[in-house]
Amino acid sequence: MFKRTRLKIMIFITTTVMLLLVGTVGAIALSSYIEEYNQTVGADKNGLLELFEYSVPDEDAATKTGSEDSGEESGTEWGYDHSSLPRKDMEAQLSIIKRFVGVLIRNTFRIGLFIVILVFSLSYFIAGWILKPLEESYKRQKQFISDAGHELKTPVATIDANAELLYSDIGDNKWLDNIRYESRRMTELIRQLLDLVRTETVKNIKEDVDLGRIVMGSALVYEAVAFEKGYLIETDIDDDIVIHADKGQMEQLAAILIDNAIDHASGDGAINISLKKDRSRVILSISNPGDEITDEDMKNLFERFYRADKAHSDNGHYGLGLAIAKVIVTSHKGSISVKSGGGVNVFTVEL
Question: Checking CA distances to 319, which of 24, 258, 284, 309 falls within 20 to 30 Å?
């Protein structure tokens, strides 16, 4: 994330400096060559502007000439008055303009190439200096989440164990049932938080994996879950799609997207899973029938703790699943996107 931001800052700084450089060099070169022209052609000339002088025809003369000989063209017409400037002066002006353009281009490329390398190198350190506080803050945030998650695991596990012992001793009790329910929710939240931190910090162990088999396996696992909600899972998966990736994270990615599609499905239709290979890219698409996702929700779907459907706030999902999916895809140099329309929502992953 910070690498891309750093590169953008470097490109912006370099582009800005180059624009200023080109404008400055052009202005200086133009002023120099205009002065050189004035000294070469003569002080009584109007510089480069004289090349573009136009003469205005005399209306009376044009009318008179036309009335005397309507069959011949008028001797005075709109355009450049060639008689107003000696040929040698005009050739001198053109020669100087050509020299100006040639030298300007050569100097700009010579100086510009050196400046681009210098500025781009300096911008690397400038961008790092700008982003350093953000990187440190981001690292502290991840460390806090990891530490808090590990510290909370033990007391939550203790509460859950004690609640189960009480349940086996006294049976059903609404207060005890509430403790057990909230304890399970807290356990799941801690698990997802630790999964997110682990995905962001642990280096991928990549190997050649059969992505088709992974996706099909996840689809079979969630088939019963979808059936209970009244939906069928339909698959269109090509054979022998092998990619170099972290097997565990690919399994987690497929599970997150399929679970998300089932959980937010509504209306008539089926959960469709497609896995295709397009040249050097692998495209995984998972669609579900459901309410159209607003533009505002689309901007934040992959943010932590964001839930577009507030009605699903008590279903064991905490807005971390899609954030984890995005981290997995990004770590594999891929992209993830969502489209919504016509009662169908489609999540697409390109790897």
Answer: 284
Question: Which amino acid, one-letter code, is at 252?
Answer: Q
Closest by Cα among 8, 279, 313 to 130: 8
Q: How many residues comprise the chain? A: 351
Question: What's the CA gap between 203 and 333, in Å, rounded?
Answer: 14
CA 64 – CA 84 distance, rounded (Å): 23
- The partner residues of 288 in beta bridges, in order of sequence, read 345
What does each of the 351 residues of the chain score in pLDDT, given as a tens digit? 566 777 777 778 778 877 777 777 667 666 766 665 565 555 444 444 444 444 444 444 444 444 445 444 444 444 444 445 455 555 666 666 666 666 666 766 776 677 777 777 787 788 778 777 777 777 777 777 777 777 777 888 888 888 888 888 888 888 888 888 888 888 888 887 887 777 777 777 889 999 999 999 999 999 988 998 999 999 999 888 899 999 988 998 999 999 989 988 888 889 999 999 888 889 999 999 988 888 888 888 888 777 766 555 555 566 788 888 998 998 888 999 999 888 899 999 998
Residue 300 corresponds to which tokens in the numbers above?
């934040």
* Residue 151, token pair as written in the block: 């510290």
Q: DSSP state, 68?
A: H
